[in-house]
Amino acid sequence: MKRYLFGILLLAALAFFISTARAAITLDSTNVGTFATGFNTSSTATTHKVTNGLTNVVTIAALYDGNNATATQVMYNGVAMTKVCEREETLINDHYVALYIATSTGDGLSHNASATFSVSGGSSVSLQLYSFSGVDQTTMFRASSVTSTQFDNLATGTVSFAVPAQSGDTVLDVFGSTVGNVTSTQTLITSQVNMNGNAETMAESYAGNVSGQTTMGYQLPGGEHIGAMCGFALIPASTVPPPPKMSFVWWGDVSD
Fold first, then answer.
1. Helix or strand or coil: residue 29?
2. Which of 224-248 are b and which e, b meaning 16 or more Cβ less than 10 Å from the residue's Cβ?
3. Strand, helix or coil for residue 195
4. Residue 172 CA to chain centroid, in angstroms?
5. Is residue 11 part of a domain?
6. CA 140, CA 134: separation in Å to the nearest integer?
7. By the 8 A CB rule, do 27 and 82 touch?
8. Which of 132, 163, 149 is nearest to 236 (CA)?
9. Residue 59 lies in a domain
10. Is residue 102 part of a domain?
11. In which residue ranges of the chain is pLDDT below 70?
């Protein structure tokens, strides 16, 4: 009588040992929209689209107001966006910046976007939209990373602030001040200089795949410059590798 011992040889780790990987967050650089600016108004509007086929997308709205009026509502594609960070500068009460976020779809179509501010002032307002793919769709940003600052730069130099983050995150910021051209210490997304002839500048930058806390900053020209910045970290989407393959083998002795 033969007795056969049937066994299973696992050629990969068991499922509960599978590690979770993270997607790479990527800027949709082909569709960084144009600034929507206005003067002495409480609202502005533009359009934005995401490259067709991109997945795990979020759209960011960056805002600036030169009269320190706060944003009251930001809409994209008919949906209210979520405010992540904002800063009202209190040194001379002249500059306000904010970043909003919403999940988005890579459909290649233009969608309406608008921003409403608390009051009309005798200064500039600005709205800018751009998108990233590879972002977690359940928890888009790291709440503990939300940071803001104001500054009074008395001479040529760098204004900066540190954003708490974790490995693999992408850190964003927005900058606003009465200043000319600025140079980002990270990767500049876009900037708008001399809005409505008021020498007001709004700029946004990002640092991708960071290793932890990240310093965001801008190099300013000479003279005194007062302004505000805020930023936060995007969380990359999780990617789980496929289940391990299994092979079946059998072995044993022949015995009576």
1. helix
2. ebbbbbbbbbbbbbeeeeeeeeeee
3. helix
4. 5
5. no
6. 10
7. no
8. 132
9. yes
10. yes
11. 1-20, 121-122, 196-197, 239-256
- Give whole-number Cα distances, 243 to 22, 38, 236, in Å: 17, 54, 21
The rounded distance, in Å, linking the Cα atoms of 114 and 34 is 13
Residue 122 confidence (pLDDT): 61
Domain containing 207: what range? Answer: 23-237
What pLDDT sits at residue 38? 82
- Output the pLDDT for position 81: 98
Which run of H or of E encompasses 176? strand 170-178
- Residue 239 confidence (pLDDT): 66
Interstrand relation of 43-48 and 111-117 (parallel, antiparallel or unpaired): antiparallel
Side by side, the strands of the sheet bearing 79-80 are 43-48, 111-117, 71-76, 79-80
Q: Are 62 and 97 in contact (CB under 8 A)?
A: yes
Which pLDDT value is given to residue 16? 37
pLDDT attached to residue 14: 34
| 3-19 confidence digits (pLDDT tens) | 433 333 233 333 333 44
Count Cβ neighbours within 10 Å for each residue of 148-162 and write b for 16 or more, e otherwise. Answer: bbbbebeeeeebbbe
Q: Which of 49, 63, 209 lies closest to 131 in space, CA to CA? A: 49
36 assigned to some structural domain: yes
In DSSP notation, 31-65 reads G-PPPEEEES-SEEEEEE---TT--SEEEEEEEEE
Q: Give the three-state DSSP class for 143.
A: helix
- For the chain, the domain total comes to 1
At residue 17, the 3 state secondary structure works out as: helix
Predicted TM-score (pTM) of this structure? 0.85
> Which H or E run contains 10?
strand 5-10
Q: What is the DSSP letter of 230?
A: E
